[in-house]
């Protein structure tokens, strides 16, 4: 976990604090108590500058392409006597593209936290529009084509400029961008030259729309993003505009050459967007092409983003920020298809982190990559075949390497003898799959709509107080979208040893936001029985009802759900207390979730789910992806402790430092 310095340190604990006031007891739900700082963070995030509607920048006239390797002298032809070199230092422009080393903004909010917040907002809009599209398709008598477009977005190029208005209106990612623009929710609405706060070299985006949402590359189609004369007239008045801020290399141009540290980039325009991406007409030295030339002459760096195929990404591409490059040369040339193109030689600035992404090649001529070997393998499958996917364990830290021990793996909840599980709740009468929220009784429990979309195998649109899934008495089948969390593991997980946090978990696959990762399993117990369990550090209290009602300082979640009458009401009189009644004990029995660590800026969230019965006191605990998670990134969630809330057997307050390592780390776990 994010707070371990050795393997014997305590992990997530839930000691019985009988002598501690209720308002100081720890809780372990998905939404920890908000501090004044977190409230301030939200306030800051909502203060977005007004975003003006984009207008076409005025461009200077430029000549057509010349012969190969003959550099254009546009200034001479335009009668310009000298080249502008940028503002004086006193204008503050000489270092406007250099990072200042700050990790937080002027309000103390982590730049990475603001980035995550914005991307989560984009994903929320995106999934809502996915749901709208799924509803539209289900209502059409002849909706095969539109539904196929929804399921196979890769068949239509992401940067398809020839889409008509009707087709574009069906793209949820573009709708999400429009929503954020209209709501002034873009993180950096003004184009920035150089590094962007919170986005480090190596950061990955999973669609061009994500880059637009944060203001990193402000156009979802064009490969060159630039500051035009109309927008940069005041701020960059001593520069020759337009100026390029970023380029995307994604293998769409057959004339590109990528040697990682030095690239030959083909200018924009003239290629077949609907076909094989080859050049079909001449390029001209305008807009982005002219901007790159101006960058070269004024020594202004450009952000380089490389795009690669990623079969698991919802856009089928992944875009990696590879740092700042300088344009050192440009020329007009005859392209491979015989048309005039502009080519730019860019060299990577020194002193930047090592490149992590691979070279980009013309995508029509390359094959697939080879599966890597597993170093430090100490156990081929910790679940011994119980899951449909093996979970290996690796250890390259200890000498000699050791495997995880002390756990009997169980993929489902075990129930203690004194805990009575309610009988199965009445189900819906849907047949096959639940598709109509107006007639499905389970959808009505979730606020008259389904909590999931079918995209990517099922994704939760947003965190809720509780999710009601279809159960054993429902008429639908196992592939119903409202059974998403019941399908077991969908991603290849690995338990691995860390140098300072004990065991941890990561995925070999890309995990889209809202996707269920795993359930937290163990022995379902009463909290009152925990006193007989000694030295147990793996207790997860089920605080679903408390989160729904904001009891014990918890932040209330979206609660447009209907709690049905029945067994759950029998114990509700006790639920006004801050202490949950039941917990999941993973001390001896548990699953892979037992090894997932804490983080102050996690990429997972905890969701209470009801499927077989409707008693919120005994809800299932499922971990969902809060972000689009790239392969090999550690999986984490917030354990939700309050500071000074854990007391040891001697009655003294216990303290445990946090080593999660994020910019916004609270430094202490409890």
Automatic annotation (TrEMBL):
It is found in: Chromosome, Centromere; Nucleus. Residues 654-670 form the Post-SET domain. Residues 1-11 have a biased composition (Polar residues). GO terms for molecular function: double-stranded DNA binding; histone methyltransferase activity; zinc ion binding. Residues 1-103, 150-170 are annotated as: Disordered. Residues 491-640 form the SET domain. SMART domains: PreSET (SM00468), SET (SM00317), SRA (SM00466). GO terms for cellular component: chromosome, centromeric region; nucleus. Residues 194-348 form the YDG domain. This is SU(VAR)3-9 homolog 4. Its main location: nucleus. Residues 426-488 form the Pre-SET domain. One of its GO terms (biological process) is methylation. It holds the Pfam family Pre-SET. It comes from Prunus dulcis. The lineage of its organism: Eukaryota, Viridiplantae, Streptophyta, Embryophyta, Tracheophyta. Residues 67-87 have a biased composition (Basic and acidic residues). It comes from the Eukaryota. Keywords: Centromere, Chromatin regulator, Chromosome, Methyltransferase, Nucleus, S-adenosyl-L-methionine, Transferase.
């Amino acid at each position: 976990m994010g707070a371990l310095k050795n393997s014997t340190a305590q992990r997530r604990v839930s000691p019985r604090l009988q002598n501690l006031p209720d308002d100081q007891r720890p809780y372990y739900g998905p939404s920890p108590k908000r501090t004044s700082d977190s409230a301030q963070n939200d306030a800051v995030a909502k203060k977005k500058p007004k975003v003006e509607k984009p207008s076409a920048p005025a461009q200077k006239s430029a000549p057509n392409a010349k012969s190969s390797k003959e550099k254009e002298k546009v200034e001479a032809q335009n009668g310009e006597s000298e080249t502008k070199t940028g503002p004086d230092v006193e204008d503050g422009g000489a270092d406007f593209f250099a990072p200042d080393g700050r990790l937080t903004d002027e309000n103390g909010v982590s730049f990475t936290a603001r980035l995550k917040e914005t991307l989560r907002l984009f994903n929320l809009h995106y999934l809502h529009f996915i749901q709208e599209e799924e509803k539209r398709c289900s209502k059409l008598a002849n909706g095969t084509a539109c539904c196929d477009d929804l399921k196979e977005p890769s068949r239509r190029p992401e940067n398809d400029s020839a889409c008509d208005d009707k087709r574009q209106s069906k793209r949820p990612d573009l709708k999400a961008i429009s929503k954020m623009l209209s709501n002034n929710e873009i993180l950096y609405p003004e184009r920035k030259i150089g590094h962007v706060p919170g986005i480090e070299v190596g950061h990955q985006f999973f669609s061009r729309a994500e880059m637009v949402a944060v203001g990193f590359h402000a156009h979802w189609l064009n490969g060159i993003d630039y500051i035009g004369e109309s927008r940069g007239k005041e701020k960059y008045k001593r520069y020759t505009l337009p100026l390029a801020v970023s380029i995307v290399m994604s293998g769409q141009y057959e004339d590109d050459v990528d040697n990682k540290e030095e690239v030959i980039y083909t200018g924009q325009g003239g290629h077949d967007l609907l076909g094989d991406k080859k050049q079909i007409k001449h390029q001209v030295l305008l807009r982005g092409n002219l901007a790159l030339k101006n960058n070269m002459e004024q020594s202004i760096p450009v952000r380089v983003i490389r795009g690669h195929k990623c079969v698991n990404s919802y856009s089928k591409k992944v875009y990696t920020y590879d740092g700042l490059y300088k344009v050192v040369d440009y020329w007009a040339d005859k392209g491979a298809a015989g048309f005039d193109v502009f080519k730019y030689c860019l060299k990577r600035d020194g002193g930047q982190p090592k490149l992590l992404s691979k070279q980009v090649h013309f995508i029509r001529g390359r094959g697939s990559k080879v599966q890597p070997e597993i170093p430090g393998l100490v156990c081929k499958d910790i679940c011994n075949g119980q899951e449909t996917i093996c979970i290996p364990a690796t250890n390259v830290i200890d000498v000699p390497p050791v495997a995880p021990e002390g756990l009997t793996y169980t993929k489902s909840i075990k129930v203690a003898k004194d805990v009575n599980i309610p009988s199965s709740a009445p189900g819906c009468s849907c047949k096959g799959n639940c598709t109509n929220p107006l007639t499905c009784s389970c959808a009505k429990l979730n606020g008259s709509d389904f909590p999931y979309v079918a995209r990517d195998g099922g994704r939760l649109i947003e965190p809720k107080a509780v999710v009601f899934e279809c159960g054993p008495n429902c008429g639908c089948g196992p592939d119903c979208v409202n059974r998403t969390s019941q399908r077991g593991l969908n991603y290849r997980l690995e338990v691995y040893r860390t140098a300072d946090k004990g065991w941890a978990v990561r995925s070999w696959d890309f995990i889209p936001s809202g996707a269920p990762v795993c359930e937290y399993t163990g022995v379902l117990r009463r909290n009152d029985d925990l006193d007989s369990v000694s030295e147990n550090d793996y207790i997860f209290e089920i605080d679903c009802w408390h989160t729904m009602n904001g009891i014990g300082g918890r932040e209330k979640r979206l609660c447009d759900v209907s709690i049905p009458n029945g067994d759950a009401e029998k114990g509700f009189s006790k639920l006004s207390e801050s202490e949950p009644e039941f917990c999941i004990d993973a001390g001896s029995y548990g699953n892979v979730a037992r090894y997932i660590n804490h983080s102050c800026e996690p990429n997972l969230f905890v969701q209470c789910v009801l499927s077989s019965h409707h008693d919120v006191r005994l809800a299932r605990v499922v971990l969902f992806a809060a972000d689009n998670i790239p392969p090999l990134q550690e999986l984490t969630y917030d354990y939700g402790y309050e500071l000074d809330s854990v007391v040891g057997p001697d009655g003294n307050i216990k303290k445990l430092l946090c080593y999660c390592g994020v910019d916004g780390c609270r430094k202490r776990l409890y």
